[in-house]
UniProtKB/TrEMBL annotation:
<dbReference type="GO" id="GO:0043565">
    <property type="term" value="F:sequence-specific DNA binding"/>
</dbReference>
<keyword id="KW-0238">DNA-binding</keyword>
<dbReference type="Pfam" id="PF02518">
    <property type="entry name" value="HATPase_c"/>
</dbReference>
<dbReference type="InterPro" id="IPR028082">
    <property type="entry name" value="Peripla_BP_I"/>
</dbReference>
<keyword id="KW-1133">Transmembrane helix</keyword>
<feature type="domain" description="Response regulatory">
    <location>
        <begin position="685"/>
        <end position="805"/>
    </location>
</feature>
<dbReference type="InterPro" id="IPR003661">
    <property type="entry name" value="HisK_dim/P_dom"/>
</dbReference>
<dbReference type="InterPro" id="IPR004358">
    <property type="entry name" value="Sig_transdc_His_kin-like_C"/>
</dbReference>
<dbReference type="Pfam" id="PF12833">
    <property type="entry name" value="HTH_18"/>
</dbReference>
<feature type="transmembrane region" description="Helical">
    <location>
        <begin position="360"/>
        <end position="381"/>
    </location>
</feature>
<feature type="domain" description="Histidine kinase">
    <location>
        <begin position="425"/>
        <end position="640"/>
    </location>
</feature>
<keyword id="KW-0175">Coiled coil</keyword>
<dbReference type="GO" id="GO:0000155">
    <property type="term" value="F:phosphorelay sensor kinase activity"/>
</dbReference>
<feature type="modified residue" description="4-aspartylphosphate">
    <location>
        <position position="733"/>
    </location>
</feature>
<keyword id="KW-0812">Transmembrane</keyword>
<dbReference type="InterPro" id="IPR018062">
    <property type="entry name" value="HTH_AraC-typ_CS"/>
</dbReference>
<feature type="coiled-coil region">
    <location>
        <begin position="381"/>
        <end position="418"/>
    </location>
</feature>
Length: 936
């Protein structure tokens, strides 16, 4: 097989080189690990060996190349760059020069001819590239090694065979290889020299076969007769000998003519087979030296010792030894074939191994990547978890801060609300005494003449309320001082028994009036104690005032004084309405509102009392049971060890005590006679609902001259009284005590009055200290007809009452004129509609009575009577009659029904009675009415 180009043969540890390389690249791409694994088996240096052959076309050359390749298998790091010149010297020179320029590490050359290659080989050698001459030589010593058979010796062996075969006599022809090649020259030389020993043998002709079978055949074909007298033809190689034999055979010369050649190659069409077949009488083994060339090249490249001239041995192959040799060579060939097969299998296994190894690398690498990714993912997950936890913690912290903020803002809001409520109540608390100062004052000023009694009563009221205001202002100032931390204790040693007794005594008249069992209980006669008289006075006054406020008539209030464990204990106990646990817990909080409206007298006074007791290093506490009573306990330490010098004073005996003010406030209560009535008073009944006794009395007195007055002190009683009396108008304070939770304030009372059928018609005027618009809106929403803020002008109040009553009367008149179509108070309209339809439904029933009607309406007879009277200004019976007449008139005008029919339908037992009744009420008989024109 010929090849004009380079044939690159590379040997890897496994010849699955391409795949491996690709895998290497792949692995290189996917990671260092794979590359490292791949490279671990190929770390040896790679050598490039150039090999130039004169020809590659014949069997001997193919065998040579094959032998080289087999040997190369042991050198995986060698790359063979092979060139075939196809017997063309010029081409081979070009190829060799090209190889030398391709960075080869060594050149093996089998030159076509000797002389033309001498310079080329020398130049390459001088370049430092080692040169091995294989089989053929050049005319120079500048090479590293020569490997080849001993061609002179082979020529001699051939001559010796010829001499003996021809028994020293005969004619011989010599077919030359290429004359300019060294083997041809040396074989000829040896042959001729040895043949001289057989003078009877003549070389009759020389033929130029140029190593080629066809060349030899062609030459012989031109003159076959020339060999008629030739006994033997000696060819320089077997292929030319066989070619000559073929020509001779065709020309019938083979009987007398014998052939010998050189090479003795094994194989079916080569020299050894030709000897076995008898085609050739003998051949001479000429080894290729392929293996030896690679071995020598390896030694040179690896710097080992090598033979410069390696002459390969030759043997004669003829009929005598052909069988053994052939058997051996066949065996060798078959073994070689087996070895090649095995090596193919090994190669395949290696490929598989390599593939598996690479797969393993990839798998391991993937596994490593997966583990790394897993570790990374785990790390990320952990990091995320940690971050999440941190975030959670931060969130939690933020949440807590937010909650704290919310709590604080809630507390702030509640505190603000409480403060606002506190201010509202303070205003209320101020407004009531102010009203009771302003109202009687204005009243006195508006009158032309005033009786001495009236003057004294009014001024007493003014004085009492002015003191009340003073006390309130005093409390406020005390609070302010406490708030600012400026409250200073001014204690002196005094007899606490006498002190307490005096205060209790001051409440004596009040107790008498309210029929309360007030007692001061103590086993002590005199007890000196360091205390601030002004402050303790305020505390005890406050406790007693509260006790009176919440203890009903006929109750008890006991003040007890004892000495106990180095302390003085003062207890104020009542059997009044008591406190809820929540109220107890916050009894001393200034701004606590709890579920009930703020109560100034309790809140402010108790908060202050606590402050004062703490200043004394004492304490105040409360125990209470709802509906059972309350016990306040004050504890004060004996001696003055606990007091700073600045807190101890010498008592000023002239210092004005609170006693006078207190007695005015408590006892100077002029009797305002509520029964004073003006003779020309109106029939209208007013219900006054006001918790402040003074104001209630004042209003009752002031309005009593013009109206019938009923008065109550709280919403629940007010409601009961309203149902009982069905008054013409209600005047109510908005802020009414709602201590037990069952009672109602003024707004709730108004709402109740306005939604109940029995009372919905009653106008309501609300009186309050609250001037804010939202409270007015609340009032309007509850259904109040008017809203007056305290302190109010009595004249204005009177006018408002009169106007409201007048409006009510007009409203009644309107209702009376056309009760069914009026618009107005929804409840009233509903009431009238219900009443009217009930009457209409029962019109034909002559037994239908007011009693039955009131039952159906769910009212008492009196309530129904009063309600109808109030709404329509007419008796319920008159109203019944009115409806009957209206119905009768309708039936007379709109139907042709008989008098008897109409009488029966309108509830009259007889037509005669109907006619009489009709005439009495309308001035005409029913027949006259029927005939008269519409509209009259
Ligand atoms: C092959 C060949 C062989 C011979 C050798 C001499 O090309 O002709 O037959 O022995 O070359 O170089």
């Amino acid at each position: 097989m010929r090849s004009s180009g380079n044939e690159h043969i590379q040997r890897c540890p496994h010849s699955f080189a391409g795949t491996k390389k690709r895998l290497c690249y792949l692995l290189f791409l996917v990671g260092w690990f794979a590359v490292a694994g791949c490279q671990s088996s190929g770390s040896e240096r790679v050598y490039r060996i150039g090999f130039s052959q004169c020809t590659g076309g014949d069997e001997w050359r193919k065998t040579l190349l094959h032998d080289m390749k087999r040997e190369l298998a042991f050198h995986p790091n060698y790359t063979l760059l092979y060139e075939d010149a196809a017997n063309n010297t010029a081409r081979q020179i070009r190829q060799v020069e090209a190889l030398a320029n391709q960075n080869i590490d060594l050149l093996i050359i089998s030159p076509n001819e000797s002389a033309p290659f001498t310079k080329v080989v020398e130049a390459i050698f001088r370049k430092g590239i080692p040169v091995i001459l294989l089989d053929r030589k050049v005319n120079s010593e500048l090479y590293n090694a020569y490997i080849g058979g001993d061609n002179v010796e082979i020529g001699r062996m051939a001559a010796e065979f010829v001499g003996k075969y021809l028994n020293g006599k005969g004619n011989v022809s010599e077919i030359w290889g290429l004359r300019s090649s060294s083997p041809a020259q040396e074989r000829h030389k040896g042959f001729r020299e040895e043949l001289k020993k057989y003078p009877g043998i003549q070389v009759t002709s020389e033929i130029d076969g140029k190593w080629e079978r066809d060349t030899a055949r062609n030459v012989l074909n031109t003159s076959p007769d020339k060999f008629k007298n030739t006994n033997l033809i000696f060819a320089h190689n077997d292929v030319m000998a066989i070619g000559a034999y073929e020509v001779a055979k065709r020309n019938g010369l083979t009987d007398k003519l014998e052939f010998i050649g050189i090479d003795a190659l094994p194989g079916p069409s080569a020299g050894m087979q030709a000897v076995a077949d008898g085609t050739l009488k003998a051949s001479f083994l000429y080894p290729t030296g392929g293996e030896e060339a690679i071995e020598t090249a390896a030694r040179i490249l690896e710097g080992k010792a090598f033979k410069r001239e390696q002459i390969l041995t030759s043997i004669q192959v003829d009929a005598k030894n052909i069988r053994g040799l052939k058997a051996q060579s066949d065996k060798l060939l078959s073994q070689q074939a087996d070895i090649e097969k095995q090596s193919q299998i090994i190669e395949q296994l290696t490929q598989t191994y390599s593939f598996q190894q690479n797969t393993l690398y990839v798998t391991l690498f993937s596994l490593l990547i997966a583990i790394a990714l897993g570790v990374w993912a785990y790390y990320l997950l952990r990091a995320r978890k940690v971050a999440y936890q941190t975030l959670e913690q931060q969130n939690e912290a933020i949440r807590q801060q937010k909650n704290q903020l919310e709590d604080v803002s809630q507390q702030a809001r509640l505190a603000t609300e409480d403060k606002l409520r506190f201010y509202a109540y303070i205003s209320h608390e101020f407004n009531t005494p102010l009203s009771l100062i302003l109202t009687p004052t204005e009243d006195l000023l508006s009158k032309k003449s005033v009786s001495p009694y009236e003057l004294r009563a009014s001024l007493s009221l003014v004085q009492k309320n002015a003191y009340r205001l003073l006390r309130l202002v005093d409390q406020m100032l005390d609070l302010r001082k406490s708030d600012a931390g400026k409250q200073q204790l001014r204690a002196a040693e005094q007899d606490v028994v006498a002190f307490t007794r005096d205060i209790v005594k001051d409440f004596g008249r009040k107790a008498e009036k309210q029929r309360i069992d007030l007692q001061f209980l103590t086993d002590l006669t005199v007890q000196p104690l360091w205390f601030d008289a002004e402050k303790l006075d305020k505390v005890l006054f406050n406790l007693l005032s509260n006790a009176f406020k919440y203890t009903p008539k006929g109750g008890l209030i006991h003040v007890r004084l004892d000495q106990l464990d180095g302390q003085i204990r003062i207890q104020v106990k009542d059997n009044g309405q008591g406190m809820t646990p929540d109220e107890q817990a916050h009894a001393f909080d200034l701004f606590f509102s709890g579920t009930r409206p703020f109560n100034l007298s309790k809140g402010l006074g108790l908060a202050l009392s606590k402050e004062f007791m703490e200043l004394h290093r004492g304490s105040i506490s409360v125990q209470s049971t709802p509906e059972r009573g309350t016990l306040f306990t004050v504890l004060l330490p004996l001696s003055n060890k606990h007091l700073n010098p600045s807190e101890q004073i010498i008592p000023d005996v002239n210092e004005r005590s609170n006693t006078y003010q207190r007695s005015v406030e408590l006892n100077n209560q002029p009797e305002i006679v509520s029964t004073l009535r003006s003779p020309e008073k109106s029939a209208a009944t007013l219900l006054i609902v006001e918790d402040n006794d003074d104001l209630r009395t004042f209003l009752s007195d002031r309005l009593g001259s013009e109206f019938d007055i009923v008065a109550e002190c709280n919403g629940a009683l007010g409601w009961e009284r309203a149902l009982e009396t069905i008054p013409d108008l209600v005047i109510s304070d908005v802020m009414l005590p709602v201590e037990t939770g069952l009672e109602m304030d003024g707004l709730q009372l108004t709402q109740r009055l306005k939604t109940d059928l029995r009372t919905s018609h009653i106008p309501v005027i609300l009186l309050t200290a609250k001037g804010q618009s939202e409270h007015q809106i609340e009032g309007a929403r509850a259904g109040a007809d008017a809203y007056l803020t305290k302190p109010f002008n009595t004249t204005f109040l009177l006018e408002t009452i009169r106007t409201t009553l007048a409006n009510r009367r007009k409203w009644q008149q309107r209702l009376t004129s056309d009760f069914s179509t009026q618009t107005g108070n929804r409840q009233d309209k509903k009431f009238l509609n219900e009443l009217t339809s009930l009457i209409e439904q029962n019109l034909s029933d002559s037994n239908f009575s007011v009693q039955k009607l009131s039952r159906e309406m769910g009212l008492s007879r009196v309530q129904l009577y009063r309600k109808v009277q109030a709404l329509l200004s007419m008796n319920i019976m008159d109203y019944l009659t009115e409806i009957r007449l209206k119905r009768a008139k309708y039936l007379l005008r709109e139907t042709n029904r008989t008098m008897a029919d109409i009488a029966a339908e309108t509830g009259f037992n007889s037509a005669a009675y109907f006619t009489t009744f009709f005439k009495q009420h309308s001035g005409r008989t029913p027949s006259e009415y029927r005939k008269s024109p519409v509209g009259t």
